[in-house]
Specification:
678 residues, alpha/beta, 5-stranded parallel β-sheet, 3-stranded antiparallel β-sheet, 9% strand
């Protein structure tokens, strides 16, 4: 075994040893209370400790995008939830609920895949971080099946004040009801606490269902109340009583009782997944427990303690149906609803996709540039609603998506809203509907598999659009309505048109870069004319004829006009400054080199992007002479050395941009004849 393996195993062993149960007498527990609040703390106290102090981020000091999104305000980020994106507001509300004691029922309302289950699961994990102190039967050696805490032994109002003062326990912790399991042992030992009980320091465990429990939905027709409150364990009836072998267990005896989720999670976290899908009758024991701190067990077992963080997850339609029901009236004052919407920020949506891919078998498969960005944009646009009284309907949704992302849209024809306006006028349920993260995961898997039969597993924008269309068309009406399908396909048409233009530009840029000499000549010529204009001097043609100022300006204006440049004077000054700066940089570098290591002070045509863009914009490609270069399957199909060089350079450029050979072939096929037009 390697040293690294031994170290790893030793760390695991040490961690488990640190989590071993520790047993002490009741007197020892009382002494520990004097200096260690953890000995009597509640589930909310321990969960708050596990949550930790937040990192307070001043968004004014972050990127412009982050500052715009948060309005320059300070936000709190909690480390346990670092993998949840754009969820700071939601997590802050959850933290506030816990800070306030976790009283009542925390309802996480959100659509499929928004992260509500992940939040609940993280709270379950946090519940395992710190130990709780429970009563243990000295006779049987078993921990209370109802997670009774030692504080329940001292809830008598006659001794609370004295005990609180003597052992430094705040009075609010000495109001815990005791179960019939505790009462039975007190009576059996004639209220001798040391004879009846020990105290065990134990860590909550999801695996053991100790201090943590989860209940999955059962359905409207099945009111399985016993799953919550427990039931008589028929297999134990007639067995010897653990306190007195001369007696047998009967119905109503706490030692013949099978605990439910309420008891298993007492002192920790109870996660009720999609609870409102259950029969309405299940709400009654919830309300009883969160109001009084105890509930009535089944089969005459008496009252059982109930003090935990209760987390319920639900989606919006189910929640709205529940609110219409008669059972909701009594529940409203005991419920704290925290929305867990989909993100409306494309940059955060992208992080979710990256996390999805990292945990999948497609993590190392090729992904073309812009693929995930296109998926994110589509998803965000489907989630944007028209706002209160359709106040946002006049704004283009693609523009709104950019604004929500903290971008300042440039070059758009439609009017651009302010982010505060989008938030103020948004519908209350925006972010609770639209294309789900889970559906995105399915679409991405389909995208990678679109050409799997050909032995190709990769994703690009063309395959993504194909997969999205297929997915939407095949979706059940219950999942995506006919009206939504029509809207979604309209969004895809917009994205497809833009995607074709983007791909065409990429192909054009790649083939232009392949024809480097022509572009360099155009660059050098423009800079020569610009410098002459700046110096107010003449140029001379190859034949020695002078080119005067008016002809110089005419050449420059024609170049700039074809490139869409409106402020020629400013453009030329900036270009000259940039080129001179690059020449100076090369000179400085040469000054530190030996003469044979120095390079010529030549500035490449791509060094100043505005001019490079101008050259690409106006450079006319001869369709007939270049189309065969793009269509060639290999450089051996081409006639001249220059054509072969351009072919290889084109493919090198595309590969450098992140495209595989099969992606390039697909792009050229998709664009057709236009692929060779600038």
């Amino acid at each position: 075994m390697s040293t690294e393996s031994k170290d790893l195993l030793n760390r695991i062993k040490k961690k488990e040893e640190n989590r071993k149960d520790e047993t002490m007498s009741v007197d020892s527990w009382l002494d520990e209370c004097k200096t260690n609040p953890a000995a009597y703390e509640t589930a909310a106290d321990r969960l708050l400790k596990a949550l930790g102090e937040p990192e307070i981020v001043n968004t004014r000091e972050e990127s412009q995008q982050t500052s715009l999104v948060h309005g320059g305000k300070k936000i709190a980020r909690y480390e346990p939830f670092a993998d949840l994106y754009d969820a700071e507001n939601t997590i802050s509300k959850v933290a506030t609920f816990i800070k306030n004691g976790g009283d009542g029922i925390l309802v996480l309302r959100g659509p499929v895949g928004s992260g509500k289950t992940e939040i609940a699961t993280i709270l379950e994990e946090l519940a395992e971080k710190h130990p709780m102190y429970l009563l243990k039967c000295k006779t049987s050696g078993k921990i209370s099946p109802f997670n009774d805490t030692p504080t329940c032994l001292f809830s008598d109002s006659d001794i609370v004040s004295e005990l609180a003062k003597e052992y430094n326990i705040p009075k609010r912790y000495l109001k815990t009801p005791q179960s019939s399991w505790v009462t039975k042992r007190l009576k059996h030992h004639d209220y001798d606490l040391d004879a009846a009980f020990e105290v065990v320091k134990v860590y909550p465990s999801r695996e053991a269902q100790l201090g943590v429990a989860k209940l999955d939905p059962k359905g409207k027709k099945t009111a399985d109340i016993n799953a919550l409150i427990g039931s008589v364990d028929m297999t134990l009836l007639g067995e010897d009583d653990p306190l007195d072998p001369t007696k047998v267990l009967s119905a109503g005896d706490p030692d013949a009782y099978k605990p439910g989720a309420f008891s298993q999670s007492n002192g920790g976290v109870f996660h009720a997944a999609e609870f409102f899908r259950n029969a309405p009758e299940l709400m009654d024991p919830f309300l009883e427990g969160v109001t009084t701190g105890y509930f009535a067990g089944d089969g005459g077992v008496g009252i059982l303690p109930m003090n935990q963080i209760i987390v319920v997850t639900t989606n919006d339609p189910v929640w709205k149906n529940f609110k219409k029901s008669a059972e909701s009236d009594a529940a409203r004052n005991r419920i704290e609803v925290v929305d867990v919407p989909y993100t409306l920020r494309m940059s955060e949506e992208l992080k979710i996709y990256q996390k999805l891919l990292q945990g999948s078998s497609y993590a190392d498969k090729p992904v073309a540039p812009g693929t995930m960005e296109l998926m994110a944009e589509f998803s965000i646009v489907t989630r944007l609603m028209d706002g209160k009284d359709n106040a946002l309907a006049s704004y283009d949704k693609f523009v709104r998506a950019k604004v929500h992302n903290g971008e300042i849209p440039d070059g758009v024809k439609s009017k651009v809203p302010k982010l505060y306006e989008l938030k103020e006028k948004a519908s209350n349920d925006q972010g609770l509907y639209g294309f789900s993260v889970r559906d995105t995961g399915r679409v991405l898997k389909r995208t990678f598999n679109m050409r799997a039969n050909e032995g190709i597993e990769e994703a690009d924008t063309i395959l993504l659009m194909e997969a999205l269309r297929d997915f939407i068309a095949a979706a059940n009406v219950e999942d995506i309505s006919d009206d939504e399908k029509k809207k979604y396909l309209g969004y895809l048409d917009t994205l497809a048109e833009r995607n074709a233009k983007d791909l065409e530009e990429k192909v054009t840029n790649a083939i232009l870069d392949a024809d480097d000499s022509t572009c360099q000549r155009m660059f050098d010529e423009y800079m020569e004319y610009a410098q002459a204009w700046h110096d107010n001097s003449d140029l001379y043609s190859d034949g020695g004829e002078p080119i005067h100022g008016d002809k110089i300006v005419k050449f420059l204006v024609a170049f700039e006009k074809r490139a869409g440049i409106t402020n020629g004077d400013e453009f030329r000054k900036n270009a000259i400054a940039s080129v001179n700066s690059e020449i100076a940089r090369i000179a400085r570098k040469n000054s530190r080199l030996n003469k044979d290591e120095q390079v010529a002070p030549n500035v490449h045509w791509t060094s100043y992007e505005p001019i490079a863009k101008a050259i690409r914009a106006q450079h006319e490609i001869d369709q007939e002479s270049r189309r065969h270069i793009l269509k060639a399957k290999s450089d051996t199909d081409l006639r001249t050395e220059e054509e072969r060089r351009q072919f290889n350079r084109f493919h090198e450029n595309m590969k450098a941009d992140g495209y595989t050979d099969t992606m390039v072939a697909r792009i050229l096929h998709h664009l057709g004849p236009s692929a060779s037009v600038s």
